[in-house]
Each structure stands twice: as C-alpha cells, then as structure tokens.
Amino acid sequence: MVFDLDGTLIDSAPDIHAASNALLDEDGLPALTFDQIRSFIGKGVPHLVSRILETIGDDPTGPRHAALVHRFEARYETAVGLTLPYPGVVAALDRLAERGFVLGVCTNKPAAPARAVLAHLGLLNRFAAILGGDSLSVRKPDPAPLFATIAALGAVPERCLYVGDSEVDAETAMRAGIPFALYTEGYRKTPVAELPHRFAFGDFSRLPALAAEFFG
C-alpha cells in the first residue's frame, strides 16, 4: 500500500503556511491566508511558489521564482513543529503492518523534508520506501513516481493500492492503472463523487478493514 503524505497521512498545511509567510515577510511582501496557502499544496514546491507569486501579483515564472524555491526548500526540513498525523493514522499503519501490508510513501514533497517530518512524528520506520517530488525528473500526476515507489517496495502494480486525498493523487492512480482509495478529509477541492476511486473513507480506523476487504 502506497500513501500520499501531505493531506493524507499528515496535516502539514500549518507549517507550510508559516514557512511561506516567513519568506514573504523577509521580502517585505504581504502575508497570505491559511486557506490560500492550503489550496496551493499538492503539486510540489515549484508549483507552491508559482501560486504564491501569482497571488501577490508577481510573475509566477519570473526571476524571483527560483530564489524563493531555493529559500523555501532550505527551511522546509525544519518546518515540522506544527504538523500532526491525522487522527487514527498511527494505529491504522500498525494494523496494516500486522496484516502483512508493506507500506510506502509517494509524495510531491521533496524527499528530505518528507523523511524529516516522518522522523519527527516517529513514523519513518513504518515505510519501506519513500519517494519525494525531487526523487525523479517528474512529479505526480505523472505515474512514474508511483511506479518507482511500488518497484522499491518489491511489489507489483496489480497487488497495490494507492491512498491519497487530492485531485493530483486521483489522476496519478488513474494514469498508473492502480486502484485508488480516497481520504476525504485532506486538501482536495473537488467533490468526492467527481474523483475516481475504488473506495473513500474519512476515518483512518476504517482503512485496515476496507483494505483487507478490497484485496480479499
């Protein structure tokens, strides 16, 4: 079973919001709201920075972009203090492991910050493979990162389930031909019924039983 990270296993939006506004403040630029920053999460740091620049009226592909990406990534590994797992995540991961599931993470968050926040939360050792948005030359929704995560787990796509919260995750699974389970309490903007999924859940305590039923 492969998981997305931000908005699926962890609620990292408060840290990403704080880090983003700290950069804007350093440049004497106005802060953005929590909801604005939250809506930018899911497609990686370059996309996040592009949306921030666009929102403040700057060129999203201009000369400020690369510098802001670099500065954001420099502080990203330590941006962990406000991040928490969603309710029930830790117990669900333990139950899935007890049932024999091998677990991985496929995220557009850069690999080092992904590992850092998982280590901070005591979850790093739950996952046999972790692929970040900078691990390959492409990011989700390209299916290559998901396929690479599955290969790193020593698994085959036909026996995998991808768990995510967003439009990006749903598209990634669809393009990969991998069954998708939708966590409904994350960062998606599209109604649940409009996202392709095999099953949806809003309570992690239900996931082990749903996954066992799905795989028979």
Task: Offer a concise description of the structure.
The protein is α/β, with parallel strands linked by helices. It is built from 9 helices and 8 strands.
Question: Would you give an account of this structure?
Answer:
This protein has 216 residues and is of the alpha/beta class. It has helices at 13-26, 34-40, 45-55, 63-76, 89-98, 111-120, 144-152, 167-176, 207-215, and strands at residues 2-3, 10-11, 84-85, 104-106, 129-131, 162-164, 180-183, 199-201. It is built from nine helices and eight strands. The strands form two sheets. The chain has a six-stranded parallel β-sheet, sandwiched between helices. The protein has a two-stranded antiparallel sheet with strand order 2-3. α8 links the parallel β6 and β7. The longest helix has 14 residues, at 13-26. The model has no long low-confidence stretch (mean pLDDT 97).
Q: Note the total helix count.
A: 9
**Distance between the ends:** 14 Å
Give the DSSP E fraction (strand runs of 2 or more residues): 5-15%
Query: For the report, how would you describe the main beta sheet?
Result: 6 strands, parallel
Biggest sheet: strand arrangement:
5-4-1-6-7-8
Judging from the principal axes of the Cα atoms, what is the shape?
globular
- Overall pLDDT level: 97
Low-confidence stretches: none
- Helical content stands at 40-55%
Radius of gyration: 17 Å
